[in-house]
Amino acid sequence: MSGLLVGGLLGVAVLVAPGRRVPRAPDVGSPRPRRANRPKAGDEALLGARQAERAAALLRAGIAPALVWEHAGGGVEGPAEASPVAVRAVWRLVTATGAPAADALEAAAEGLRADAAARAAVRAALAGARVSARTVSALPLLGLALGAALGAPPWEALGSGPGRLAGAVGGVLLVLGWSWSARLVASAERAAR
Questions:
Q1: Cβ neighbours for 187, distance < 8 A, ≥ 6 positions apart
Q2: Are the beta carbons of 66 and 77 closer than 8 angstroms?
Q3: Is the CB of residue 51 less than 8 Å from the CB of residue 74?
Q4: CA triplet 134, 135, 141: central angle to 5 degrees?
Q5: CA-to-CA distance for 168 and 19, rounded, in angstroms?
Q6: What is the separation, in whole angstroms, between the first and last Cα of the chain?
Q7: What SS3 class is residue 100?
Q8: Considering 17, 47, 62, 175, which has the largest number of Cβ atoms within 10 A of its Cβ?
Q9: How far is 96 from 60, CA to CA, in rounded Å?
Q10: Residue 112 Cα distances to 46, 92, 106, 119, angstroms
Q11: What DSSP assignment string belongs to 72-90?
């Protein structure tokens, strides 16, 4: 019985621990291809802001516009395709209208930094909601472990028809609650984009 209690408490700890993942053992014999480390949207905005600021500084230093992007981390004639859309759009506007390029790029960098800060604030605000959802989802498992520790093993109730029905309904409600919480958090993240 104490082994079941320890196992249940370890399971609850894994569910509730924020940001912790259980490492997987590597597959033997077949190398697994590594995914490219793609930056998050906020990181992408910060990288684009840095690139735009470098380009603006190079323009102010007197570097020819045709050479700026080679030194700022872009393509030969403009920002690379990996640059944020805002940087590419500002550069197209500047080349089409003759507007002051350095000022426009610095304004784009400020906007990208503000966007990255807003995304970081949303992620921080949603962290509490994620932990709360995990904790509430883990409470039924903790209750089962506590019942077993106190001498009322819950699996004995599953031997009867009403016990099986209650267990099935409880399991369905637990999955629905977890799904609903995940959708609420995902909806808030999408709204912040």
A1: none
A2: yes
A3: yes
A4: 100
A5: 29
A6: 49
A7: coil
A8: 47
A9: 19
A10: 6, 17, 10, 11
A11: HTS-SSS--TTS-HHHHHH
**CA distances, 97 to each of 11, 78, 130, 136 (Å):** 61, 15, 47, 56
Q: Are 170 and 180 in contact (CB under 8 A)?
A: no
**Tens of pLDDT, residue by residue, the chain (193 residues):** 445 444 554 454 444 444 444 444 444 444 444 444 455 656 788 888 998 899 899 999 988 887 888 777 766 566 767 678 888 888 888 888 888 889 999 999 999 999 888 888 888 888 888 888 888 888 888 888 888 899 888 878 888 888 889 888 988 998 898 888 888 888 887 876 6
Dist. CA 49–CA 15, nearest whole Å: 37
Measure the CA–CA gap between 105 and 126, rounded to whole angstroms.
32
User: For the whole model, what pTM was predicted?
Assistant: 0.56
- The answer for residues whose C-beta is within 8 angstroms of residue 28's C-beta and 6 or more apart is none
Half-sphere exposure of 6 (CA within 13 A, CB side): 3
Query: Two tokens at 88?
Result: 């590419």
Alpha helices (H) along the chain: 2-16, 41-60, 65-72, 85-97, 101-149, 161-191
